[in-house]
Every structure is written in structure tokens, then in C-alpha cells.
Amino acid sequence: MNDETREQYARTRLLLGQDGLDRLRKARVAVFGVGGVGGYVVEALARSGVGALDLIDDDKVCLSNLNRQIIATRSTLGMYKVDAAAARVRDIDPEIVVRTYKTFYTPETADQFDFTQYSYVVDAIDTVTGKLSLVMQAKAAGVPIICSMGAGNKLDPSRFEVADLYETSVCPLARVMRAECRKRGVDHLKVVYSKEPPLAPIAEETTEETAPAGAPARPGTPKKRAPGSVAFVPSAAGLVLAGEVIRDLSGVSQK
């Protein structure tokens, strides 16, 4: 690190130490899904000095993202989310290596990624099939993975916690993931989830996302009512996810 970069991470070094910072600098983390949760993961990893980030998402920034996604501003409307996130990362620390993939991750697109290159995988995508594929790919490559469970239709950011999937309760997505992971012989999976029961969204005339012209269609995803979400819940989930990754990679644990 040059003097400027050392000064940038001076406060982080007080908690993680230089060895911890060096480990983060050598790490390469893949973040699948750069939306309300994943965008905050990317932000925290970049501000913590992770040396390389792979960002995977096929979506573009739209108006309905402005209420909760850190990458969404009026100036980024219509941009691919990975491009908006990459620009933020480079503005925070131009030395971080950023690779972007405008890809909707599914079992069919899994072969586009070499999981053995990653130090850690963050799952912040929405589909169960995609999540299961990420888990199996990471396990096969021997790479640690942490998965985000449901953050939609919730209002209490203080309820998020880190747990093994098989110790979760209440969360509907975690329930489905438990059953599917058990079928696949996955005996352990680190997740971030909330025990807050999801609220029922208030019905409106339309609940479809307001996408910009030319936004890519996502194959195999039927139209459904979008979940309600606010600025302070997916952000909290994303920061909890990032904190766990940073502690694991730096080798520094809470006492």
C-alpha cells in the first residue's frame, strides 16, 4: 500500500491490524446480485479494502430502486447495476480490481464462472434455483459462501442475524432452502436471516417494477407481485453479510 492508501484504511487497521488488511487486499470476493442487499455488500467490501471484486447481475437501475439501493441515483437510472456499482468502487479505491458480469445467474449460466478463483462467495440473488446452484458450486470448489435469506416485506433491521441454515426459523425462504439443501446433502450453510414475520404488502393497482426501456428480460422468471421494501432493511442485511465476510477473510473475530 502507498501512503495515501494506508491513510485511507487507518481506522480499519485499528481494528483488523495490518495483517488483517493485507489478507483482505489479497482476497477476491464474488457478489452475486447487486440490488438492495448486494449493493451494500459491495459498498462495505470496497470500503474495507478487499482487493478484487466480481460483480454479477443482469439488471438495470430503475425508478423503483431509488428507495433502497445504494447504487441507485437519478444519475445512474438505466445503467447496468454492475456498472453503477463498479463506478462507486473505483471512486472509493481505484486500486481495487473490479470484474463485472451482466449475467442472470442460473444453473444454466453457472459454467461461466470459475469458483476456484474466489476467496469467498456472497449470494444476494432472489431465485431458489440460483441460490442452490451457487451453494453447490461453492461447495464443490471448496470456497466459503454466505447466503442472504428473505429481506422483503420487513420493517425491523435489528432482527437480522448470522446462523447456520438448519438453525433458522420463521423465514419462508430459509424454510425452502433447508428442505432443498437437505436433499442435496448440504449439512451446513452460513446465512443471514430475520425472524421477523413478513408483512403482507398493501395492494395497489400495479406492483410491477418500473424498468427502464431496454431492460433485459430474465429467463424463467414469471411475473409476480414485487415485495415491499424500505431503505433500512435490505441495507442492514447487506452490511451484516459484508461484516461476516470481512471478519472471516481478515481472521479477526469478535471477542
UniProtKB/TrEMBL annotation:
Task: Show the SUPFAM superfamilies listed in the entry.
Answer: Activating enzymes of the ubiquitin-like proteins (SSF69572)
Q: Name one GO molecular function term.
A: tRNA threonylcarbamoyladenosine dehydratase
Q: Which residues form the signal peptide?
A: none
Q: Where is the composition biased (Low complexity)?
A: 201-220
Give the residue ranges for region: Disordered: 200-228
Q: Where is the THIF-type NAD/FAD binding fold domain?
A: 9-252
- Top-level taxon of the source organism: Bacteria
Protein name as annotated:
tRNA threonylcarbamoyladenosine dehydratase
Its source organism is Candidatus Faecalibacterium faecigallinarum
From the broadest rank down, the organism's phylogenetic lineage runs: Bacteria, Bacillati, Bacillota, Clostridia, Eubacteriales
